[in-house]
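Suppose a colleague, Dr. K., hands you the sequence of a protein chain of 128 amino acids and asks what its three-dimensional shape might be. Before reaching for any lab equipment, you can write down a predicted structure in token form. Begin with the sequence itself:
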Amino acid sequence: MNLKFNKVYFIVFLMLLAIEVIIAAFLKDGFIRHTLGDYLVVILMYCFFKSFIPAKPFYIATTVLVIAFVIEFLQLYELLSVLELQDNRIAKLVLGSTFHYGDLMAYTLGIMSVLLIEYYIQLKVKKI
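The predicted structure, expressed as tokens, is then:
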């Protein structure tokens, strides 16, 4: 696998990271913290991977969605407790601490949005 740096995706990644940090720092509850944050995190992960891996969008999007689902389902089995990280704030923030079906929907919608945007961009490029 060849790695190739993509500045555009990396800049979008950094912007989304800043938004996620602001959400985590200032919002403790509600739709934006729980649902929008989960929606944005898969887009953030996608942009991070696309910053270095020049693969087709579908492959990276699928990989990100699988990673998000695996982490979410590991919460069912109290992964943080198994790893003895239940009191670690960073681990809770990164891995989450409770399973929610709504999170799975937010991840799916985030990845669907990514694929729609990528498809739209490819259509625009082909017209030029």
